[in-house]
Amino acid sequence: MQNMSQINFEEIDSYIKTEFRYESHETIQEIKSPNPNYGSINEFIQQSDDILQDNIRKIILSKQLDEVEVYKKADIDRKLFSKIRTQPDYHPNKNTLLRLCLAMNLDTDETEDLLKSAGYSLSKSLRSDLILRYCFGHHIFDVITVNQILDHYGEKVI
């Protein structure tokens, strides 16, 4: 765990200024057919190989991690971890997944992939997400340290 005197806030400030992007959330929807082909939609949904539970299991196996250490390091209880791992219909919140990513020492790309499989992302237009990107990219994986950095910048902790 890094203490606050070891954290280079000037470097984090520079990273935020460099990486911050304004993102437009405007979408243009074009209706091509009044009767969508639901058979195709169902086939498309079933073909998705980005299943959160499978991705977590694969990461734990490939990194040879101990599940108990992962959920303890992520500061989530055993029941919630079990629910995330075994119930495909359960959708954990983004902060819970971020804590799991930290606990599994994932880099930025691995974190993005796992978040994407749950419908989340790390935006370049949110300062809190930029701070988290910085932490993942600089291998700051301790949840308490990450929360101290977020708090220092007036952001909500995870």
Topology:
Elements lengths: L8 H11 L18 H10 L4 H11 L4 H7 L4 H9 L7 H10 L4 H9 L10 H11 L5 H10 L6
Helix pairs in contact: 1-8, 4-6, 6-7
Structure description:
This protein has 158 residues and is an all-alpha fold. The chain is built from 9 helices and no strands. Helix content is 56%, strand content 0%. Helix 1 (9-19) packs across helix 8, helix 4 packs across helix 6 (94-103) and helix 6 (94-103) packs antiparallel against helix 7 (108-116).
List the main descriptive attributes of the protein structure presented here.
single chain, 158 residues, mainly alpha, 9 helices, 56% helix, 0% strand
Largest sheet: none
- How would you spell out the order of helices and strands? HHHHHHHHH
The helix fraction, in percent, is 55-70%
Total DSSP E strands: 0
The helix tally amounts to 9
- As a percent range, the share of strand residues is under 5%
Output mean pLDDT: 87
Distance between the termini: 16 Å
Structural class by helix and strand composition: mainly alpha
Rough shape? globular
Which runs of at least 5 residues are low in confidence (pLDDT < 50)?
none
CA-atom Rg in angstroms: 18 Å
